[in-house]
Amino acid sequence: MPRSTRRRPALAHPAVEEIDLYDVLHALSDPTRMTIVRILRAEPERACGTFPVDVAPSTLSHHFKVLRESGVINQREEGNRRFSALRTVDLERRFPGLLDTVLAALARNEHGAEPAAEPAWHG
Amino acid sequence: MPRSTRRRPALAHPAVEEIDLYDVLHALSDPTRMTIVRILRAEPERACGTFPVDVAPSTLSHHFKVLRESGVINQREEGNRRFSALRTVDLERRFPGLLDTVLAALARNEHGAEPAAEPAWHG
Q1: Could A25 and B28 be called an inter-chain contact, meaning their C-beta atoms sit closer than 8 Å?
Q2: What is the dihedral of CA A101, B117, A43, A95, to 10 degrees?
Q3: Is B71 left (phi over 0), alpha (psi -120 to 50) or beta?
Q4: Are the Cβ atoms of B94 and A87 closer than 8 angstroms?
Q5: A71, pLDDT greater than 80
Q6: What is the pLDDT of residues A21-67, one digit of tens each?
Q7: Per-residue pLDDT tens over the stretch B5-50
């Protein structure tokens, strides 16, 4: 497996028991980051330049950093490419059901909800 | 039921079908706001000055506003008091399972997680 010989700072990843709920919820509270998560849910890993999101490279780099430092994704470098993968197993171990529940909520968010039966007091 | 005669702007609350996932996740991504949510999960409603959180009144007021405008809580005024209630039914209708899953994750966040069996690649 070819590796870059250029030295770079190691990418920071929290250990599974260090993954913090507030960091994860913050990471998931952004549409671009959620798009990245949804894409990664469907494949083992993906090169960073290949995500179909319409944001500036520096912005995208920030989003990946937030996702990585919160423990939502893993990133590894190979040559001059960086690959991202969802930490599905780690997240499920740390916060069972959270990722799937949020992704199910995302589907409802995008498709809208059925109107309430009555416009009652919001209880 | 006594009501204040002083006119104030109506409190803004999104309708259930307008509740946005990103707003909800952002609202829940803060420890003080999550404390408010956890307290409200256990009782029908509570007067705003009675929450055991150690933040400045203006900060607390901001947190309540974020929770209300995201659709997480309902607020009503009675006389010169404001009461807050969790929109449990609305949230469950809009995003089934989300609130309970996040609160279960919160319990794990505070008590720590079991260490991973192996310090392996974060897959």
Answers
A1: yes
A2: 10
A3: left
A4: no
A5: yes
A6: 999 999 999 999 999 999 999 999 999 889 999 999 999 999 999 99
A7: 556 678 889 999 999 999 999 999 999 999 999 999 999 999 988 9
Burial (0-12, 13-18, 19+ Cβ within 10 Å), B118:
exposed
**What are A89's two structure tokens?**
């197993």
Answer yes or no: are the C-beta atoms of B17 and A116 closer than 8 Å: yes
Would you mind telling me the total number of residues written for chain A in this entry? 123
Q: What is the ipTM of this complex?
A: 0.84
Say which amino acid occupies B81. Answer: R
pTM for this prediction = 0.85
The residue in chain B having the minimum alpha-carbon distance to the alpha carbon of residue A33 is B22
With CB atoms and an 8 Å threshold, state whether B17 touches A115: yes
Residue of A nearest to B19 (CA): A109
Burial class (CB in 10 A: 0-12, 13-18, 19+), A95: buried
